[in-house]
Amino acid sequence: MDELLVVRRGGVRVLTLNRPDRLNAFTKPLLSVLMAALGDAEADQDCRAVLLHGAGRAFCAGQDLTMVEPGADLGDSLDRSFNPLIRRLRAMRLPVVCAVHGVAAGAGANLALACDIVLAGASARFIQSFIRIGLIPDAGGTWTLPRLAGDARARGMAMLVGPLKLQGIIAGFNGGAYVNPDQSVVLSRTLDPAAARRAYDAIRDHGLDAWVYTAEDWTIRDPAAPHVEREAHTVQFGPKVVADPAEGLDRAVKIVGVSDDLALVERCEADVQQAVKDQASAARSQPYYLDVTHRDANKGFVADTLSARLGIPTDQIATIGDMPNDVLMFRPSGLSIAMGQASQAVRDAAMHVTDGYNDEGFAKAVDRFIFDDPA
């Protein structure tokens, strides 16, 4: 049986990893023929794109360790096979699209991340299994993952996965990024650069401090500004201090306006919404924070996206919040609960109101309204 199937469909070269009984795990022959097939596609002037996927119920489980001889130098295998393959993918003149279903583990996950576009099906699971056996990610994973997920996302979300034992996809930046528990990216949304500039300028014109989040960094101008220390403690990593955070606007996934003048933040919210219109989403996530994200990156779209990916109808989703940007997720959900400390407008938008956070409001909401326990 051929370990790699090659099919020409018009200008597209379709490459199928074909070891379904071993979850398409890599062998030396498979790595060799895949490398050659990429070279053939590159040399074919009629080829316009490459599509890579796996046969059977998985994309690729990484290296087939049953085919590794005892005492073999795995580093040599990386140098001779995996690393040249990743470099080949990154240097291709053709766009390489990777369609992932089922498991993409270890080198299989990093092979997918090295492609130009990754289409992840609902069953896709990207697993960086290296850390479970005391290794660092190979096959380019230490380079591709932080650049796709971003250092900020990788570090900030990682602190939640273990303690909460999260297993499903996680939405960050108000839906600007969706990642798996291993921090592999499912979906990322960056701001339109023109809208980002208008929002940034409006925030600065109002006298608010402006933070810019890109895939790589959280950038600020003044490390002594209000709430910087608090934010660093919350997300468990510090900001990058730069002369002008606006330099990252073409890659921004979120802009935050910050001030302890709460009335000013509220006025700025209205003006930023007018400035970006339907090109971005602008809403306060705290009385002192104004978040600007991609127009489809808000908590309402998070509820819709999770509904679609998890196969759970929105009327079976419960949402709990206390800020104006939480109202957007109240609308599609079947059960919406406002925390007791929320403003009257937020409370009015919810179906139920629980106690405040100082009085175990979240836990009481789960008991009273989700588990339907009046006690």
Compile the SSE list and pairings.
Blueprint: E1 4-9, E2 12-17, H1 28-43, E3 49-54, H2 74-91, E4 96-100, E5 103-105, H3 107-113, E6 117-120, E7 125-127, H4 141-149, H5 151-164, E8 170-172, E9 177-179, E10 185-188, H6 193-205, E11 209-214, E12 218-220, H7 228-235, E13 240-241, E14 252-258, H8 262-276, E15 280-286, E16 289-294, H9 299-310, E17 318-321, H10 327-330, E18 335-338, H11 344-349, E19 352-353, H12 361-370
Parallel strand pairs: 2-3, 3-4, 4-6, 5-7, 12-13, 17-18, 18-19
Antiparallel strand pairs: 1-2, 8-9, 9-10, 11-12, 11-14, 14-16, 15-16
Helix pairs in contact: 1-2, 3-4, 4-5, 6-8
Please characterize this protein's 3D structure.
The structure is a single chain. By secondary structure, the protein is of the alpha/beta class. The protein has 3 domains: 146 residues, 2-enoyl-CoA Hydratase, Chain A, domain 1; 102 residues, Hypothetical Protein, Haloacid Dehalogenase-like Hydrolase, Chain: A, domain 2 (2-Layer Sandwich), CATH 3.30.1240.10; 62 residues, Rossmann fold (3-Layer(aba) Sandwich), CATH 3.40.50. The protein has 12 helices and 19 strands. A 6-stranded mixed beta sheet has the order 13-12-11-14-16-15, covered by helices on one side. Strands 1-2-3-4-6 form a 5-stranded mixed beta sheet, covered by helices on one side. A 3-stranded antiparallel beta sheet has the order 8-9-10, with helices on one face. The longest helix is centred in the N-terminal third of the chain and has 18 residues. The N and C termini lie far apart (63 Å). The mean pLDDT is 81.
